[in-house]
Design brief:
Number of helices: 14
Radius of gyration: 24 Å
Order of helices and strands: HHEEEHHEHEHEHHHHHEHEHH
Number of strands: 8
CATH topology of the domain at 58-188 and 258-333: Rossmann fold
CATH superfamily of the domain at 58-188 and 258-333: Alpha/Beta hydrolase fold, catalytic domain
Shape: globular
Strand content: 5-15%
Strand order of the largest sheet: 1-2-4-3-5-6-7-8
């Protein structure tokens, strides 16, 4: 039998293939898009691994109800808990210098909230402010904290409020910084919804969202810090950690939850009976402080309000000493 030879595709077969592509353009485009998304997901996965290698955990871990929480504990004295905002992590408070300041006077405990930094975020739980408040209450009890001053920034303020509402004997005083407390129209909540949906959210978070996050980072900082400039110390904050797929999805979930969470929580503000210091930048470009912080001050009887002139949303970075003064004020009010 004569040996078979590899056949070179004829010009006719090549024409047939090209004709097939022309007959099915949608399938061709879909296949190309799928390959591009797969390649993008692979790149984002590698970048996320590199980000975690370059930014290892700075604290310790505690597992509570199946959640592996990363936390930093510094100093001694009365317990103080710091809760960061959406998309952020422990390094926000660390780079601002607030942890160093607070640790001089207080036993300062700072958590990466579920899904951020090095903390896990199980998918079988809807991580509302209330769910997170219950989680941190258990975690702090495990750490031997029976009563604490609690500071929350931005989305973390919603968690702090829920801690006081659900566990009033645990919260000694509240410091609420740049918080969102009442439902209002939010374009970010709407635009984040696709990335928060099961299935579609995973696809976006592992492909397009990290790329968009990197491209939009300078504009995001201008909006968060404006009209103040981004301080040099914020360079220590690891942007590459915020654009990991897992953290992008967690951030989208929390953004989409803002309005309904505020609607539910706002029904109970008048019942809060804990010394509360509310602090916000009077030039905040993300949140209208008259409709949020000032309104909350009117509703909580034991509250004071501090407007930081010329400051934006990131007051823990641009007005660190004012935030520290708010903590000391809250602590002093519990002694009377």
């Amino acid at each position: 039998m004569a040996p078979t030879r590899n056949r070179i595709p004829s010009r006719a077969s090549q024409f047939e293939g090209e004709a097939s592509l022309r007959r099915h353009p949608i399938i061709t485009v879909a296949a190309a898009a799928a390959l591009l998304l797969a390649a993008t997901a692979l790149v984002n996965r590698q970048l996320a691994k590199k980000a975690q290698r370059d930014n290892p955990p700075s604290g310790r871990f505690i597992e509570v109800d199946g959640v592996r929480l990363h936390y930093v504990e510094r100093g001694s004295g009365r317990p103080l808990v710091l809760l960061h905002g959406n998309g952020s992590m422990i390094q926000d408070f660390a780079s601002s210098g607030l942890i160093d300041l607070a640790a001089k006077t207080y036993r300062t405990v700072v958590f990466d909230r579920p899904g951020f930094g090095h903390s896990s975020r199980p998918r079988d739980v809807l991580w509302t402010p209330a769910a997170q408040a219950d989680l941190f209450k258990k975690a702090l009890e495990r750490l031997g904290v029976e009563r604490a001053i609690v500071l929350g920034h931005s989305w973390g303020a919603a968690v702090a409020v829920e801690l006081a509402a659900r566990h009033p004997s645990f919260v000694e005083a509240l410091v609420l910084a740049s918080g969102y407390y009442y439902p209002s129209a939010r374009t970010d909540a709407v635009t984040s919804l696709p990335s928060a949906l099961p299935g579609l959210g995973d696809i976006l978070s592992y492909t397009l969202s990290p790329m968009v996050g990197r491209l939009m980072w300078p504009a995001t900082l201008r909006k968060m810090f404006g009209p103040s400039r981004v301080p040099m110390k914020f360079a220590a904050f690891p942007m590459e950690m915020t654009v990991r797929p897992s953290q992008m999805r967690a951030a989208a979930a929390e953004a989409s939850m803002m309005v309904p969470a505020a609607f539910m929580a706002s029904k109970g503000y008048s019942g809060l009976n804990v010394p509360t210091v509310i602090i916000a930048g009077d030039c905040d470009r993300l949140i209208d402080i008259d409709k949020q912080s000032a309104r909350l001050h009117d509703e909580i009887k034991q509250s004071s309000l501090h407007r930081i002139a010329g400051a934006g949303h990131m007051i823990q970075q641009s007005a660190t000493s004012d935030v520290m003064a708010a903590i000391d004020e809250a602590a002093a009010r519990t002694l009377h």
